[in-house]
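Recall that a protein's primary structure is simply its ordered list of amino acids. Everything else, from secondary elements to tertiary packing, is in principle encoded there. The following example makes that idea concrete.
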Amino acid sequence: MTEIRPVSGRRDFRRFIDYAYERNAGDPRWVPPLRLAERERLTPKKNPFFAHADVELLLARRGDTIVGRVAAIDDRLHNETHHDNAAMFGFFEAEDAEAARALLGAVEGWAKARGRARVRGPINPSLNESAGLLIDGFDSDPMVMMPHNPRAYAAHIESAGYQKVKDLFAWLYDLERDPLPLLVRLAERARDRHRIVVRALNLAEFTREVERLRLIYVRAWEHNWGFVAPTADEFRRLATELKPIFDPRCAVCAEVEGRAVACAIAIPDVNQALKGTNGRLFPLGLIRLLMRKGYVDQVRLLILGVEANYRALGLYPLLLIELHRRVQGGRYRRAEFSWVLEDNRNINQTAELAGARRYKTYRIYEKSIG
């Protein structure tokens, strides 16, 4: 029998965090995130997401053995934005189909008791952080802040009555070759015709730049499926967390008449350095991390956004070309564009036009419980 219990106390919380590392220890492609960061992400006092969301952490047990975990998430801001009466599940791990069904059944009961009509996931804990279940592209490591999971998880979730609601794509782009001439022409035409100025981020004005990026992000994504605008505190937390790995060559803003209206923000793939640390910085993890930082040769394009009123200007090719030119000839060999909604034609078509290869697919599932 699989028993589901809410996390209660520090010991349970530690077991919830640790189970992901135990479950995936045998997968050579899984990259352990820093345990400290995972603890902070799930600690209400550390993560402003909890200001507008209730989260119940659940553990699956058979006797004294942990066989799964999941977070039940009720994001009030999501439901105020989309009015779809949905709860989410995230941080999902399960030893087998029975544990998965028990965990998801517990989430459904929790959500139904709160009056929700559907459950959606995996979302960890919001679309602004990490989302989706890997269903295609298991032969390569995940990049920073992207999930990786056993192949069997899709069947486990589907056997619990969940169906696809949206797929997310990841594209791989070669930075060592020259940009395609067609893309260069489109970029130059957009820049010259509309007098667009592309500049690097000014880290000396970090707080102001973060707020400018947040406004672009909110305006660029406001009509996207499932998007919930992060609060200023949420966005600032993510920016502060990523600042230590930030490379100024990998971020540009586009200005029209002095106003920032688009941006492309990439971050070095520190997953390449984290491999082998087991998510711990001490006693040897920090040494391994520092020794391997020089081997990071890829980036993840985390944000590629253009405000809706300026999308007809051709800013997507311009941003990609500018980013490519700034990093070309350095240590970065490839970039991942992720994640991209399957029906986001602006970015998917630009990625394809640029010669990128779609190489991973992540799926978000949903089940009606009303």
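The CA atoms of residues 46 and 335 lie 30 Å apart. The longest helix spans residues 97-113.
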